[in-house]
Amino acid sequence: MYEDLKNKVVVITGSSKGIGAEMAIRFAEEGSKVVINYNANEAAARQVLETITNKGGEAIGVAANVSDENAIAHLAENAISTFGGFDIWINNAGMEHPYPTHEMSLKAWQEVIDINLTGYFIGSKQALKHFLKEQKKGVIINMSSVHQQIPWPLFAHYAASKGGVKLLTESTAMEYAPNGIRINAIAPGAINTPINQEKLTDPQTKKELEEMIPLGYIAEPKDIANIAVWLASNQASYVTGITLFADGGMTLYPSFQAGKG
Ligand code: NAD
């Protein structure tokens, strides 16, 4: 338990399922008040909300597309009007779908960049404006990916967006450190969420994926949620501008295992 997270208000984008939903539940377990954000799937957001309120926690659900600046301003206003402000903002919403780069439409490229990178700028801007206005030592966490470092053929748009998230994190962390605002990223490897369902339901693809992970298994959303609460808490008060990789060793060049190469 992180005592200082009690009664803190956390806004989490894309928290109707996957890692975002698990973080919402985990922060609520710490006694934080949670603003769940969803794009279209209201029923899924309601489920997360009920899970939290059934355990005695406090949460609201707000629809907003992360790539729409007005909608995200509305999300921030909702958090302020309901809970009096917010202390932690997590840019988490993301999407991916594969295309050979020479066949990728501008629309497909733009959609991923709009959600995974521009959406993080829009969210960061709302959070920073609020923290500065209230002179609050707030926290921003950006959900990156191992693909901020590992190139990913067929997913050039996704890898480019996460590479952008890395430097967005580092640049804003440096810019707002004098205000006591901490900004970090988490880079998951392979996590068992809806984004990966196709890969994980095919036994051969799952096995190939596991072979790329030195620890040998695909993690659960709670493994990422556990990191997010620590990073947001005072236990991490001297940590800013980092990307914390949670990837079972995927970024350690596993093909060199056992002296190969
Ligand atoms: P997911 O598909 O389960 O959840 C993504 C969430 O983002 C959903 O709730 C979805 O509704 C929301 N979303 C998508 N577009 C949106 C928009 N325009 N506006 C608002 N919300 C929107 O995926 P996940 O695995 O939970 O991924 C969460 C984050 O973690 C993403 O940024 C993803 O890139 C990152 N990540 C995931 C993995 C993994 O293996 N699952 C690995 C590395 C990084």
- Give the helix tally: 8
Unreliable stretches, pLDDT < 50, 5 or more residues? none
Shape: globular
* Total separate domains: 1
CATH superfamily: NAD(P)-binding Rossmann-like Domain
* Order of H and E elements: EHEHEHEHEHEHHHE
Residue fraction in strands: 5-15%
* Mean pLDDT, all residues: 98
N- to C-terminal separation? 44 Å
For this structure, the quaternary state is single chain
The first-level CATH class name: Alpha Beta
Small-molecule components bound: nicotinamide-adenine-dinucleotide
How does CATH name the architecture? 3-Layer(aba) Sandwich
Question: Can you describe what's shown?
Answer:
This protein is α/β, with parallel strands linked by helices and 261 residues long. The chain has one domain (3-259): 3-Layer(aba) Sandwich (Rossmann fold), CATH 3.40.50.720. 44% of the residues lie in helices and 13% in strands. The chain has eight helices and seven strands; from the N terminus they run βαβαβαβαβαβαααβ. The protein has a seven-stranded parallel β-sheet, with helices on both faces. Strand 4 (88-91), helix 4 (106-133) and strand 5 (139-143) form a beta-alpha-beta unit. Helix 1 (18-29) runs parallel beside helix 2 (42-54). The chain binds nicotinamide-adenine-dinucleotide (NAD). Nicotinamide-adenine-dinucleotide binds at residues 13-14, 16-20, 38-39, 41, 65-67, 92-95, 115, 143, 145, 188, 190-191, 193-196. Residues 13-14, 16-20, 38-39, 41, 65-67, 92-95, 115, 143, 145, 188, 190-191, 193-196 line the site of nicotinamide-adenine-dinucleotide (NAD).
